Amino acid sequence: MVPAGDVFPRLPRSMIDEAVREVAPGYDLAREIKSASLALQPGAARTRAERTQAVVDDLAETVFPITLGADEIFEYYGRRAEELEARRKPPPVKTRSDLAEAPISPA
To answer: What number of other Cβ atoms are within 10 A of residue 11's Cβ?
Structure first.
């Protein structure tokens, strides 16, 4: 996992390239970016999957599970189910039983 301090700030690429040229004129930033994204590595999909799993494992240990009481969870999902059901059903059709049949004239 990459420490947050090692990540580039959100700057236009041109500004980053200019800063790199000033500090390290021979440094190939484009190649380093490709290397870090695994674009130059065979079997990159497996490595990406492993890195993604490492992030997921870290989040599972440090962030989740978020503890809520069982009552809160059931209440939330109960309300959510009612909202979805209300959206799924069309509104009832209003009818009147005292309407007369329209006359049909012979053609």
So the answer is: 11
